[in-house]
Design brief:
701 residues; alpha/beta; 30 helices; Dimer_Tnp_hAT domain-containing protein; RNaseH-like_sf
């Protein structure tokens, strides 16, 4: 091993007595000149700090100071010494690291100071790096020692950058922004010029993508054991080009894979299936558990083609999309002649509307409500009657009550968390909760019939039948919580999964695909019988108690080793999501990058930007600093974020007479409400106007 990397190596063993003395002297200066440890000093030269030394790598002898040692070992030219040809990349990187550590350690520490009493008003006439220190410069000795004037000038330049480019103030919390300026301030890089337009869009972008790919390797390494879901969705960019993106969703988070430009392709089932197949081959077929798309017929047909080619991979329709379709069916207007439009996805808007009820009522009873032209009196009276009508508010409460269970399930599934094993039970629980709300509202007994509930039930069952797959049933069967006494007694008529006819039939279909060989299938059936019937080791007290207490995956890790085949399947299925929401959220990133201002950017460059942006945020969220400190959750929200922005401009208004009056009235009243100094929340009416218009008389729910 080369001297300098092993603490037990003694360079003096090959040196003269004089060099042994010199090496002892050198050890005391290693903290400041670390590269002396990688050469052997033979003798000291009388002139200056020069010494005769031999390189421990190439064994050649030279005369010179520490600067030449550094140039020789780090292979730096222009110092009048030959570079060492024996130093490997690993050794050179280690030596460079030691040199940088010494340089950083010897630099003066940055001490934050409060704003000086004499605030900075006039920036220096020349850039900071061109200024020379002069004793006669203005300011006290304390200001000069800490560079207060330079700090203030730099702050002004950074602020000017924010203001001129329209950057949101929230950007100041970005850790990479902080790191960039800190590195520049702590390292003397004379004459440094920031990267320009072409560097940022070409070389540096490619370099960063390679860097991100290297950082993602540990996450991708878990796919073989934990499995992944291929999630895909379509979108149209600013230039009306159809794009299809692919993401790999797993326990480690959704990783952006690619985006395909389908401008010149006929997007039928064969084309979509070929794209999905290519992605599966790229990540490895044995790692893929399922493919998630929306519920479009062409996507379903493509999913069937993928299943035919890879029998162990299942096509799963997005549960969130299914729930959205069910909610639209339930809220659809019955009288389409009188109701030309229906605001289908307004649950959260109605909830906000309910929260500001008192603000709205304060608005219509205010003295300013009557401050209108004479021809608006009738409209104002119509609005006032609706807002103060208790029966109308009761209808709002009822809408929120019976759509609440659907909305709750939608919110739970609309995440990247593992929910595949929960979907089957959530559908049953949601329908039961909805039935309770409707029967309570209609004051019906359990054995009576509700026409409205029958309609809603038929819609939900129809949607569930179209979206339920054997994989949902197998994941449900492998959740140990559904065999616990606490869950079975939670609601009447609950049975464990192995006693449910439908679930058992679908589960056996999965086993047939996973284990086409009869002998292997017999082994896994025996393991499932022991697990579901609480036999052998599964009958222990801890095993039974932990079925309810532990997380399903933890339970399998603790108690499932005796059923290895079943355990491997369970650990994969219990870590999968059930929606394509990560793809839809990724289109928000794509639209942010490929906006109308940048609509000339090529699809490939936009894909690289999305790849870096999405995956860099994923990696950042795994950093401990993401959850604390000044950079906490730096990529969420901010002063530029408005979830309701543009909602009214995209909303359509009812065309019936009362709807037109209501809309006209509210738009006329808004500039004056709420009254000055009133914080009751009446001003939010403008944001929830579509819900107001949808709930007025004339709309059938």
């Amino acid at each position: 091993m080369v001297s300098g990397f092993a603490s037990t190596t003694d360079c003096s063993s090959v040196a003269t007595p004089t060099s042994r003395f010199e090496n002892t002297e050198t050890q005391s200066t290693d903290l400041k000149y670390p590269l002396w440890a990688f050469v052997t000093i033979t003798k000291r030269v009388e002139e200056g700090g020069n010494k005769c030394w031999a390189c421990n790598f190439c064994n050649e002898t030279f005369t010179g100071s520490y600067t030449r040692v550094k140039a020789h070992l780090l292979q730096t030219s222009s110092y009048g010494i030959k570079s060492c040809s024996k130093v490997t990349l690993d050794y050179r990187a280690e030596m460079q690291k030691r040199v940088e550590e010494v340089e950083n350690r010897n630099k003066p520490k940055c001490v934050p100071l409060p704003n000086s009493s004499s605030s900075f008003t006039h920036p220096p006439s020349a850039p900071i790096f061109e200024q020379r220190k002069r004793k006669s410069a203005g300011g006290s000795a304390l200001e000069q020692s800490f560079g207060i004037q330079s700090r203030n000038y730099l702050n002004a330049l950074i602020a000017r950058m924010f203001y001129s480019a329209g950057l949101p103030f929230h950007f100041a919390r970005n850790p990479y922004y902080v790191e960039a300026f800190s590195y520049a301030a702590n390292n003397s890089i004379s004459g440094y010029v920031p990267p320009g337009y072409n560097s940022l869009r070409c070389n540096l972008l490619v370099q960063e993508k390679v860097h991100i790919e290297r950082l993602l390797k540990p996450l991708k390494g878990l796919w073989k054991e934990k499995g992944l879901s291929i999630v895909t969705d379509g979108w149209t960019d600013a230039q009306r080009r159809p794009l299809i993106n692919f993401m790999a969703a797993s326990e480690g988070g959704p990783i952006f894979l690619s985006a395909i430009d389908g401008s010149k392709e006929y997007k039928d089932k064969h084309y979509i299936a070929s794209l999905i197949t290519n992605v599966i081959k790229e990540v490895g077929p044995q790692k893929v558990v399922q493919v998630i798309t929306d519920n479009a017929p062409v996507c379903k047909a493509a999913g069937m083609l993928v299943q035919a080619e890879y029998p162990h991979i299942f096509w799963i329709p997005c549960v969130v999309h299914t729930l959205n379709l069910a909610l639209k069916n339930i809220c659809a207007a019955k009288n389409t002649e009188r109701n030309e439009i229906v605001y289908n996805e307004c649950w959260w808007i109605i909830m906000r509307f309910k929260l500001i009820k008192h603000g709205l009522q304060s608005m219509v009873i205010s003295d300013k409500w009557n401050a209108y032209r004479e021809d608006s009196v009738g409209i104002a009276q119509t609005v006032k009657e609706i807002i103060l009508n208790d029966l109308w508010w009761d209808k709002v409460d009822y809408i929120l009550s019976f759509t609440g269970p659907i909305y709750d399930m939608l919110r739970l599934c609309d995440t990247d968390k593992p929910t595949l094993h929960l979907v089957y039970d959530m559908w049953d629980s949601m329908i039961e909760q909805l039935r309770t709300v409707i029967f309570r509202q209609e004051k019906k007994e359990e054995d009576e019939v509700s026409d409205f509930y029958n309609v809603v039930y038929a819609i939900l069952i129809d949607r569930w039948t179209k979206s339920c797959t054997p994989l949902h049933c197998l994941a449900h069967s492998l959740n140990p919580r559904y065999y616990s006494k606490q869950w079975l007694e939670g609601l009447p008529n609950r049975v464990p999964p192995h006693k449910d006819v439908e679930i058992s039939a679908e589960r056996n279909k999965c086993f047939l695909k996973y284990f086409p060989i009869a002998e292997e299938r017999r082994f896994v059936n025996i393991e499932f019988a022991r697990f579901s019937g609480c036999m052998d080791v599964f009958a222990s007290f801890d095993s039974l108690q932990d079925r309810w207490d532990l997380d399903p995956k933890m339970w399998w890790l603790v108690h499932g080793s005796s059923a290895s085949l079943l355990q491997n399947i369970a650990l994969k299925l219990l870590g999968q999501s059930c929606s394509s929401s990560c793809c839809e959220r990724n289109w928000s990133t794509y639209s942010f990058i490929h906006s109308m201002r940048r609509n000339k950017i090529t699809p490939q460059r936009a894909e690289d930007l999305v790849y870096v942006h999405t995956n860099l945020r994923l990696l950042s969220r795994k950093n401990e600093s993401y959850n604390k400190g000044e950079t906490k959750m730096w990529d969420i929200g901010g002063d530029h974020f408005d979830p309701l922005e543009g909602m009214l401009s995209q909303s359509r208004f009812p065309q019936n007479e009362k709807g037109a009056k209501f809309g006209k009235a509210v738009k006329l009243m808004l500039p004056n409400f709420p009254p000055s100094g009133d914080n009751s929340g009446g001003g939010d009416i403008y944001m929830i106007l579509p819900a107001v218009l949808h709930l007025i008389p004339g709309h059938v729910w």
